[in-house]
Design the sequence.
């Protein structure tokens, strides 16, 4: 090749010592320099080996540096070739006078017969001047077929990148090094390894020829592992020679091509028996990682799909290569297993990453290592966290079977998509129907259900348990803002999700409020978190505030003002601190961004009616209210200044929430009561958390303050202990199912019970959802066999309701003696009395209402001909599907449906009093959704997704 | 200081919350009180229950239907066999129509209580039972309360009193029957809780339970469900039937006496206080106020003979200081001469008997379902004007075909008796006047006699 400037044969520099090995004297150099380049401690003797270098040109940027390093090699290669790359690589080769070839295999094939070894280098790798000599010397000495160098970071040469590679059974590389591990010579011993890094790999030419060179289909990392495995199958040794040091640029994590290469390599080298379990295991492992990785901020699903897809396409060539390998193998799979890691390297990496992230969110040491895992698990934070998780799961265990049917808690309909459609401009099926929009929580629940493939019970459990877990976690994070540690924080979280105020919300069956309560602490925490520096991160923070507030608003729209208002109060408490003011401003902006998320409901709903319907009058238990008060007072007195202020803030929230929940006299309705309870829950949780934290502050809380703090803790403990009242029943604080008890029999009725309605009469608190009154007696019309959640809130009274009440009036006044017939036109097949009501007697003396015996509640069944919601003029009933009706198509027939008259029903609608007369030609009757609302709902969803993505992107920045 | 302020604020908010008043309790439901039994024909659809009907080998019944407006009528006769479909008939009544529907044309199985449903109004129904020696009947019942009063029973020899409990509804009824006689409350064994299955009836022979009572007044109360009771008093041949009534302080009886029948007023006072009554008599010539007075002890019935109050025909008005129930019963009285001429004991035996309930108040319109509808008997209309002004009453015949109305003047404080000609096309009358009056009708044949109350029409 000729000499290059600065390059000399042999070694340069003084020798530190001398050693004898065999009959040869070697000068051993601890550290030496040649041409200002650091050299490794390598033996001095030059073995009679001829090496040709093949530089894999995958990174052209590093090519000149590699070439320059090669010129400085004390052991000169006979030829340097640049393999692969494009025209630019060829040009560079021409400029430096190096040969260009299409692949490493060409170098191997075309090398002079005197060449004994091929040194494969990655472009950008900078071998130290004696790297090649060390490789050659040691490889020859140990008779290695493949030898690799110790790889160090080019920008930080003291940091190790790789000293040989182990793999797991799936071919994933594992270096065994810590992140940023410093080279202190701890790995400086020649040893057998599973594979060496592709950045510097010396292979015997004859072996390389026999193997056919590196697999050109594979990415560099996978190709290196693959050729090493194939070499070992041929009986060759693969060793790492740490005395050969190569500086490499920072390596990016393998993409789909590396993973694809690992799979192909498995398919080629393993026996069929090994493949039978390894391939499925690899498939499942990748899928599992694809599911878990998003929680770590990574998306691996496409990589997984691409890797397997590529292998499917390449399968024929893989099989051909496999046949060649298997034909010439000298050893079995056992040889491959010798240097393999137990288990999965990817799983280890994932577990380590997960643990680190979890640990970041808990107070304590910043780093979590496997070694410390055992000790960490015994820490109170982990124990209490596990207990909290267990309590939440136990508290909500029955909800995985669906919401109980009681009050405003009703099961989700069978189709989540239908529920979303009803929210987004579809028909509101409550009562006799209407176009009043469903509440946002229903749209959200429907979306969750649709995502879960319409599994209503699963969606119910997920919503409630998820909200509870989020609430516990969020409270922990929130109070940590002021230094409240994990255990008190978690206890505060328990009070938030299962304390007295939350139990009251459950007793009121405020499902949406319970979900909103889970997100509420986050709506305060996110704005309070440390303000990021970059613009993108700041924008992401605003987006995060908005979408978290959005979840609060969707669950309970009135709660959207709680976070900004609370933070403004906090800012007023600490007026000189900019943090709370910024948080308040951020929360205000975020809440403003939330409002579009409530479309179309916010644009159409009668907000005054929403706020004032019902009576807001919460009567909290005096004992527990007093306990919160005592905890507040004691904590404020005993706590250090900052914690005392936080406790005071919590107390103001609790008291303010209690006030709001009792504003019936001022026009407040049920939603106001629920919102007030939620704020009271939040305030109570903060007070309790601070109370428990104060008692831990041994140095700051001393003397009489400690005694007072103890009183506060006792009171807080009483509040916390009351959470067991939620745990035991397992319904997340919701009451037991009572509606199913009285209506369940309808499911077994003859015909299609779902095509009929039920008239429920009884006290307000024994009727599902909202109710109407006739002459002051409450009643409710619901779908049989069981009403779904979208029937809980009634639309405004319409013509159908007026007609129905006129019918009831006639029955009450004794003007009707065939109530069954009268009610049948409204689709009512059963009349059930759910409790004491003066209307019981008015249904006596009806000629066509037959009492049903043996039922828990007085029940009458109509003997009318067709007590169904929809019937043709020929008397054939049509079936209610939840969003419309279906039946036998008949071009000449008409169907009358007992839904509130609306021109959007079709096809071929004709006026029919308060109902609708439609054509039966299509066999289907549908309601044409209101396009503007559908658009608004879609826009709201799109905005939510954008906000989530923006917040994720901001976190990465 | 700041923390103290926070506590104060929290305390103030809590105090404010505690002071906020609870929402007022919702007002109790505004539901109609139990109606006083005053069966009224209104302009809307109605149903009339006729418990005492029968159609078989020995007797037949006629359901007299009358309507002031064109309408459809559906007659339903429940089957005595459980779960069997009822027998039904449908017919149309034209404007101002009336019809005497023979029950045997629908079913022939003996006892056949039933009901008639009118899809419009005003309409009313009455029922007559006819046999060789029987002519009985009264208006049917429109209102169905939980508590009924049935005075007028007797369990003396030669009289049989039967209580029929008719349940036309699907819901089974649980009923208790109470009674009191001249001796006070009587224990009716086995009648404290009677189950009457849905769409069925039960007959209770009171003679078997409490014999030898001169007067027996019954109360029927429903604990569950509803029943329509009817009292039947049978003489040696004829029988009389009347429906249950409510309580009122005023009763008017336009008809009290038919040819040869000796009337009595039977009054029951189920209350707790003694009722003082005054009987006003209205004859063809004028009225006699308080022609008789009497006291009705609390919890006892009283039978007041009124035959001596006036000459030929008269009507009465009963005024009471306490709510009472009352019926008029008129019987043939034939002295039975014993073997011993000195025997002053006269065993009473009668063949004809009639009875009816009264009206609680006069009104301006009346519907009489049935007069003239039975061609084999003579119908008589009775009009009572208890007002101080004379009244001119329009008599509109109801039936098939057009019939011109007639007018009749009834002087103040008098009763008018109108024997109706037998027209096969007439089976009822609509009576209207500018001022209130009372109306009833009677029917008589060789078999027997019956008094039938009129039905007031809702204004």
Sequence:
């Amino acid at each position: 090749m000729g000499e290059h400037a600065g390059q000399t044969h042999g070694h340069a520099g003084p020798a530190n010592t001398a050693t004898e090995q065999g009959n040869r004297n070697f000068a051993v150099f601890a550290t030496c320099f040649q041409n200002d380049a650091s050299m490794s401690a390598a033996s001095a003797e030059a073995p009679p080996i001829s090496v040709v270098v093949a530089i894999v040109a995958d990174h052209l940027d590093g090519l000149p540096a590699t070439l320059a390093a090669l010129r400085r090699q004390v052991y000169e290669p006979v030829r340097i070739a640049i393999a692969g790359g494009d025209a630019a690589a060829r040009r560079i080769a021409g400029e430096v006078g190096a040969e260009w070839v299409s692949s490493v295999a060409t170098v191997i094939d075309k090398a002079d017969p005197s060449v004994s070894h091929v040194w494969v280098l990655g472009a950008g790798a900078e071998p130290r001047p004696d790297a090649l000599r060390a490789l050659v010397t040691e490889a020859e000495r140990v008779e290695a077929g493949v030898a690799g160098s110790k790889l160090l970071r080019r920008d930080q040469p003291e940091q190790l990148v790789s000293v040989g590679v182990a793999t797991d059974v799936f071919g994933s590389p594992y270096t065994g090094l810590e992140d940023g591990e410093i080279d202190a010579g701890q790995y400086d011993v020649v040893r057998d390894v599973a594979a060496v890094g592709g950045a510097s790999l010396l292979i015997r030419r004859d072996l390389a020829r026999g193997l056919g060179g590196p697999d050109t289909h594979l990415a560099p990392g996978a190709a290196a592992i693959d050729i090493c495995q194939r070499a070992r199958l041929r009986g060759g040794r693969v060793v790492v020679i740490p005395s050969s040091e190569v500086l490499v640029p920072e390596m990016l994590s393998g993409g789909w091509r590396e993973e694809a290469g690992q799979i192909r390599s498995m398919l080629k080298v393993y026996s069929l028996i090994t493949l039978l379990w390894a391939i499925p295991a690899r498939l499942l492992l990748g899928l599992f990682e694809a599911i878990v990785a998003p929680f770590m901020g990574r998306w691996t699903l496409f990589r997984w799909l691409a890797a397997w897809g590529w292998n499917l396409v390449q399968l024929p060539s893989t099989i051909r290569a496999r046949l060649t390998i298997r034909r010439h193998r000298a050893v079995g799979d056992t040889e491959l297993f010798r240097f393999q890691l137990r288990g999965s390297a990817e799983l280890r990496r994932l577990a380590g990453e997960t643990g680190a992230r979890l640990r970041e969110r808990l107070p304590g040491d910043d780093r979590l290592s496997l070694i410390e895992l055992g000790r960490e698990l015994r820490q109170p934070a982990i124990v209490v966290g596990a207990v909290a998780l267990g309590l939440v799961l136990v508290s909500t265990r029955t909800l995985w079977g669906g919401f109980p049917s009681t009050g405003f808690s009703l099961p989700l309909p069978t189709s989540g998509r239908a529920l979303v459609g009803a929210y987004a401009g579809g028909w509101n099926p409550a009562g006799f129907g209407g176009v009043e929009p469903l509440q946002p929580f229903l749209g959200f629940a429907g979306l969750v259900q649709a995502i879960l493939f319409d599994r209503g019970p699963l969606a119910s459990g997920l919503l409630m348990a998820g909200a509870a877990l989020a609430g516990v976690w969020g409270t922990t994070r929130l109070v940590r803002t002021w230094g409240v540690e994990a255990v008190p924080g978690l206890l505060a979280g328990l009070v938030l999700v299962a304390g007295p105020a939350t139990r009251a919300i459950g007793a009121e069956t405020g499902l949406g409020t319970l979900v909103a309560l889970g997100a509420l602490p986050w709506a305060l925490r996110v704005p309070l978190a440390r303000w990021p520096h970059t613009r993108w991160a700041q924008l992401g923070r605003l987006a995060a505030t908005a979408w978290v507030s959005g979840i609060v608003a969707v669950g309970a729209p009135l709660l959207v003002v709680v976070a900004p208002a609370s933070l403004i109060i906090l800012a007023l408490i600490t007026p000189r601190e900019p943090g709370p003011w910024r948080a308040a401003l951020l929360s205000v902006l975020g809440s403003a961004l939330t409002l579009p998320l409530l479309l179309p409901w916010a644009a159409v709903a009668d907000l005054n009616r929403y706020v004032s319907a019902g009576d807001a009058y919460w009567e909290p238990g005096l004992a527990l209210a007093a306990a919160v008060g005592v905890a507040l007072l004691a904590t404020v007195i005993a706590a250090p200044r900052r914690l005392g202020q936080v406790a005071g803030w919590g107390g103001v929230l609790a008291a303010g929430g209690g006030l709001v929940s009792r504003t019936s006299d001022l026009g407040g309705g049920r939603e106001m009561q629920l919102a007030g309870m939620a704020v009271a829950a939040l305030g109570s949780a903060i007070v309790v958390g601070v109370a428990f934290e104060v008692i831990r502050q041994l140095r700051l809380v001393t003397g009489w303050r400690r005694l007072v703090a103890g009183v506060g803790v006792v009171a807080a403990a009483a509040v916390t202990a009351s959470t067991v009242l939620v745990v035991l029943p397992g319904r997340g604080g919701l009451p037991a199912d009572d509606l199913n008890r009285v209506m369940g029999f309808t499911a077994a009725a003859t015909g299609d019970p779902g095509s009929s309605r039920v008239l429920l009469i009884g006290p307000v608190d024994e009727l599902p959802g909202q109710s109407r009154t006739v002459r002051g007696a409450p009643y409710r019309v619901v779908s049989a066999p069981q009403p779904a959640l979208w029937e809980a809130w009634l639309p405004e009274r319409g013509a159908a309701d007026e007609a129905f009440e006129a019918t009831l009036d006639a029955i009450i006044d004794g003007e009707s003696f065939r109530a069954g017939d009268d009610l049948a036109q409204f689709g009512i097949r059963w009349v059930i009395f759910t409790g004491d009501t003066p209307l019981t007697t008015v249904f006596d003396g009806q000629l066509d209402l037959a009492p049903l015996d043996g039922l828990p509640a007085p029940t009458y069944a109509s003997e009318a001909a067709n007590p169904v919601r929809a019937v043709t003029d020929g008397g054939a009933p049509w079936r209610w599907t939840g969003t419309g009706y279906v039946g036998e198509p008949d071009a000449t027939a008409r169907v009358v449906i007992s839904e509130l008259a609306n021109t959007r029903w079709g096809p071929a609608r004709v006026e029919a009093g308060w109902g609708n007369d439609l054509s039966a030609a299509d066999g289907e009757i549908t309601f044409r959704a209101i396009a503007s609302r559908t658009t608004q709902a879609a826009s709201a969803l799109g905005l939510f997704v954008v906000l989530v993505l923006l917040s994720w992107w901001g976190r990465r920045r | 200081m700041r923390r103290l302020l926070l506590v104060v604020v929290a305390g103030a908010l809590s105090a404010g919350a505690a002071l906020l008043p609870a929402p007022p309790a919702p007002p109790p439901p505004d539901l109609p009180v139990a109606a006083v039994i005053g069966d009224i024909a209104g302009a809307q659809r109605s149903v009339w229950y006729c418990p005492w009907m029968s159609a078989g080998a020995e007797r037949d019944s006629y359901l007299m239907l009358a309507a002031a407006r064109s309408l459809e009528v559906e007659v339903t006769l429940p089957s005595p066999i459980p779960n069997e479909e009822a027998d039904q008939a449908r017919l149309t009544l034209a404007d101002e129509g009336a019809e005497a529907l023979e029950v045997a044309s629908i079913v022939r199985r003996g006892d056949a209580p039933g009901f008639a449903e009118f899809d419009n109004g005003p309409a009313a129904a009455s029922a007559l039972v006819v046999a060789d020696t029987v002519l009985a009947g009264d208006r049917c019942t429109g209102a169905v309360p939980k508590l009924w009063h049935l005075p007028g029973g007797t369990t003396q020899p030669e009289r049989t009193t039967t209580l029929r409990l008719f349940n036309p509804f699907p819901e089974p009824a649980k009923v208790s029957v109470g009674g009191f006689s001249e001796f006070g409350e009587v224990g009716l064994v086995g009648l404290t809780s009677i189950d009457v299955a849905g769409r069925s009836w039960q007959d209770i022979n009171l003679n078997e339970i409490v014999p030898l009572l001169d007067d027996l007044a019954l109360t029927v109360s429903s604990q569950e469900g509803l029943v329509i009771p009817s009292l039947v008093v049978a003489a040696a041949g004829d029988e009389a039937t009347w429906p249950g009534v409510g309580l009122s302080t005023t009763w008017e009886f336009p008809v009290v006496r038919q040819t040869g029948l000796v009337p009595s007023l039977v009054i029951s006072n189920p209350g707790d206080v003694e009722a003082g009554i005054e009987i006003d008599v209205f004859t063809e010539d004028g009225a006699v106020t308080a022609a008789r007075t009497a006291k009705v002890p609390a919890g006892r019935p009283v039978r007041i003979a009124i035959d001596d109050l006036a000459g030929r025909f008269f009507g009465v008005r009963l005024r009471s200081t306490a709510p009472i129930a009352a019926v008029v019963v008129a019987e043939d009285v034939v002295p039975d001469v014993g073997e011993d001429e000195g025997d002053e004991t006269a065993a009473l035996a009668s063949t004809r008997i009639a009875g009816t309930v009264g009206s609680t108040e006069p009104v301006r319109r009346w519907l009489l379902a049935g007069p003239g509808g039975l061609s084999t008997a003579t119908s008589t209309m009775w009009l009572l004007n208890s007002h101080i002004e004379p009244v001119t009453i329009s008599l509109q015949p109801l039936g098939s075909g057009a019939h011109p109305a007639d007018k009749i003047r009834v002087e103040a404080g008098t009763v008018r008796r109108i024997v109706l000609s037998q027209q096969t096309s007439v089976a009822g009358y609509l009576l209207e006047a500018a001022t209130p009056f009372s109306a009833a009708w009677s029917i008589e044949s060789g078999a027997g006699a019956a008094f039938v109350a009129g039905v007031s029409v809702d204004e």
The helical segments of chain B are 2-19.
